[in-house]
Amino acid sequence: MKRKFKNDDGNDGDIDDIDDDCQREGKEKNTTHHTRPNEEVPPVSTTEDSSPRSRITSPSMPMNFNSIDNNNNNNSKNNNNNTASSIRAASRKTRVYIFHEFVKKLYPNIPSGSVILDIAGGKGDLSWLLKNIDDWNSIVIDPRKTITSDHILRSIQYLKDHPQEAKQRSMIGLPTYQPLAKLLPQLEGKTTFHSPKHLRIFVNNEFVQAIQSYQQNSNEIEWNKYWNKAILHAKKGDDETQVPSSTSTSTTFNKDDESVMMISVQESNEILQLLLSTKLILGFHPDQATDPAMDLAIHLQIPYCIVPCCVFPRENLHRILPSDGQPVKQYGQLIQYLQSKYDSEIDTLPFHFTETAKNIVLYSKSQVKNKPE
After folding, report:
1. What is the pTM of this model?
2. Which segments within the chain are labelled E, that is strand?
């Protein structure tokens, strides 16, 4: 069943559902950063507090990682009843806004126009907010052809046309609360909105290694070969014969001929320089891209803010807990592994933690120095 977006009443709907609920682990492997089942969204109210909470722990205040998985299992069982289902769906409508507010409060000194990478950003809702409200040049990196802002634009238009309704929906705590309505004053006077740039590639080890290799040898030809190969890899399975533009240019190509150049050396180098100028890396449930995203931040010595999600233990055999040498198989172990490997600070986002709604944030506040192996 195709998911419906009910925008006729100005409700931006389940705007981030393609980004925030991962499929059961192991059913889909390495096809995209995320894979979602299609499902109908039940009508729900959104009553959660959208204000980021203060940090709950830090590397010097260890979290009980076993309790994370225990709570996760309990919450998953509770989702069988209607109340829990409504809570889960309600929080789904606000998650991207909660993460957006958390990020802005965590990094108040990043200047306007800065390049931000939104890893596995799906439809681009987070990047749209960062670009149009906060004036950050947030770029979605996701292999799927999913980026769209039509649902947000329809909601904005409805709220502008119905100011009393917009005022009602901007009140936190009410069943009618809609986060976009609360942000509406920050869009006052704007008549033009900009969709974020979308780079359709996988963020994986090869992506990080290609950037590292260029910085070592400055070989633009090799980078161009990697970039075109990466685009073709992301395009496999698409019906289109148009390469989605990473810049302003799109080139027709034969999908069966992997030797064809899709973008020029100059164009791919412009993309590379954009990537190298990045000031912050974000990832809201980036799934398989979690480790590479954090590796890239370490390499570029820039901050990161990641909300890990699925574990994919059979695809990440390299993840071994330093404390006891056990492989990472559960979510609590994943958090423990990542926090230890990257020396991350840790926090939680104020929405309900469930099997498919992970809310633990790993982040760094300032430039990250390379950590010895």
Report:
1. 0.76
2. 115-119, 137-141, 198-199, 278-284, 304-307, 345-348, 360-363
